[in-house]
Amino acid sequence: MSGVDVVRGQSHLLRGVDWTITPEQRWVVLGPNGAGKTTLLQLAGALLHPTRGEVQLLGETMGAVDVFELRPRIGLTSAALAQRIEPGERTGDVVLSAGYAIVGRGRERYDIHDLSRAAVLLQQWGVQAIAHRPFGTLSEGERKRVQIARALMPDPELLLLDEPGAGLDLGGREDLVSRLSDLATYLYAPAQVLVTHHVEEIPPGYTHALLLREGAVVASGPLSQVVTAEALSETFGLPLALERSDGRYTARRQG
Ligand SMILES: Nc1ncnc2c1ncn2[C@@H]1O[C@H](COP(=O)(O)OP(=O)(O)OP(=O)(O)O)[C@@H](O)[C@H]1O
């Protein structure tokens, strides 16, 4: 992204964003409510065009490419997408049908490669035992893992995760962080962007961070240089103390 603005009416949702992601990088995007994180992810997911500036995705320039060709190359999970999944849909089919970029299993034909890839992903994300159950009967943690398995099904080149830790209990969060950490360090995994409000959710193995406040980038670059008490305090607008131990971060208000 180069000099990107997103403007709606009088509001600047994003202003002057410059951001480059290379395939081996794993980025965390941090910022308070309303900072523009979801808007940034929609740009990265070819779901939104910038008002000004240029967005290049997977070698294509937005505005000069058919977004319907680009979108299957990008895996995305978000609360908005999760709401579109039919509660009665069989969990295994939620993952399987992603190969066709549809929600729910229709009359498509799945070959043995689709079926075995879905089976591997269900197993990797710990939801194989509940693959027969309707999606609506799953816990929040199980749903989050199914959505990530679904996003990975088309073997995307870029994986975008919008607040996958939201609504999870401590055990669910820790399980998710550890699975995301495994995915981050897997050599053939896609480039990854994880949006979160909480430094506790940064998976070990993530390499870079972008901090957003009021639509503007406060800092971006290698994780250890960007996720600092000073930069986080500026981003969230309150004095914060930060600790790092075994690759995990914790933050609390200072004073
Ligand atoms: N179509 C729109 N018109 C006007 N303002 C909008 C529009 N869409 C989003 N906004 C505003 O833009 C700002 C950024 O929204 P966005 O959802 O990107 O933030 P966010 O960082 O993801 O927030 P949260 O952490 O609460 O999910 C918010 O103040 C939101 O109200």
Automatic annotation (TrEMBL):
One of its GO terms (molecular function) is ATP binding. The keyword NAD does not apply. Coiled coil: none annotated. Residues 1-239 form the ABC transporter domain. Keywords: ATP-binding, Nucleotide-binding. The keyword Nucleotide-binding applies. PROSITE patterns: ABC_TRANSPORTER_2. InterPro entries: AAA+_ATPase, ABC_transporter-like_ATP-bd, P-loop_NTPase. This is Iron complex transport system ATP-binding protein. It comes from Geodermatophilus amargosae. The lineage of its organism: Bacteria, Bacillati, Actinomycetota, Actinomycetes, Geodermatophilales.
